Every structure is written in C-alpha cells, then in structure tokens.
Amino acid sequence: MYDPLKYHDVKAGMSVAIVGCGGLGSMGLQLAKAMGATVTAISTSPQKEAGARKMGADHFLLSTDAEAMGKAAKTFESSTLCLPTTNSCRTSEPSRPTVCSTMCVFACVCLCVKDIVGGCGLA
After folding, report:
1. Which residue range forms the structural domain that includes residue 49?
2. What is the C-alpha to C-alpha distance for residues 111 and 104, in angstroms, rounded to an integer?
3. How many whole angstroms separate alpha carbon 114 and alpha carbon 86?
4. Residue 35, domain CATH
5. What pLDDT does 78 receive?
6. For 118, phi and psi rounded to 5 degrees?
7. Helix (H, G, I), strand (E, B), or coil: what is residue 102?
C-alpha cells in the first residue's frame, strides 16, 4: 500500500479513494491519512463505516448506493488517487467508472490469482 501512495506523491491537498475496507484497505487508509490526504473509504458493507472513520476516513461511500456514488463521482478530480484493494479486480470494477473518473489516477493493488490463472489457461 505504501508504494503506490509514495509513487504518486500523496500529500496534503490530495484526495485518495480506497476501495475495500478490509486489511489492505485499512492499511492504505491510515497511510494516506498520515500523508495528509483527504481519504474516502468505499465499501459494499455498511458495517465497515465506523471502523473506516475511526481509522481516519474523511468520507465513506457505500458502493451499492448508486445515488451516493454518482454524487461522489462529481467531486473527484485529477488529484484523486483511486486504490482498489479488494480480492478480485472484478469486485472493484463497478466502482471504477462511477467514482474514479477518467481524470483520476487508478492504481490496482489487488492480486487476482483466480483471474490470472484462469486467464492463462493454467486452471
């Protein structure tokens, strides 16, 4: 999680969207916050909001709430770094076009072993 944040020079005044609030997402959220970014946590689970906010999330989006996701998409811009951390890139895809607009930097930090193996004909 540190590498993409450091590579994209995350600092105060930038926005970071973390897709997925599990272990990896929680680490990314705390790192981005420590670097001074405004952090939006995005999850399919409303139960993750309290924990995300406790770790420093400035905003929380429920990815299954189409209206909230649509409104949020208008607030993200070129200074937004979007980091999906879910265990499947397919899980992250619905959030990408809605929230992480074409102006966002989109850095996938999840490893899709099932997708890679299946796609390589190794399964």
Report:
1. 2-119
2. 21
3. 13
4. 3.40.50.720
5. 59
6. -60, -40
7. coil
Cα dihedral 65, 68, 71, 77 sign: negative
- Which strand (E) or helix (H) includes residue 71? helix 66-73
- Could you read off the pLDDT of 47-83 as tens digits, one per residue? 999 999 999 999 999 988 888 887 877 777 655 777 7
Q: Which of 41, 31, 49 is nearest to 72 (CA)?
A: 41
Say how many domains are in the chain. Answer: 1
- Among 2-11, 26-35, 78-87, whose mean pLDDT is lowest? 78-87
Please give the Cα distance from 30 to 74 (Å, whole number).
Answer: 24
Contacts for 20 with CB less than 8 Å, ≥ 6 apart = 42, 43, 84, 85, 86, 91, 92, 110
Q: Among candidates 122, 90, 104, which has minimal Cα distance to 17?
A: 104
Cα–Cα distance between 36 and 1 in angstroms, integer?
A: 15
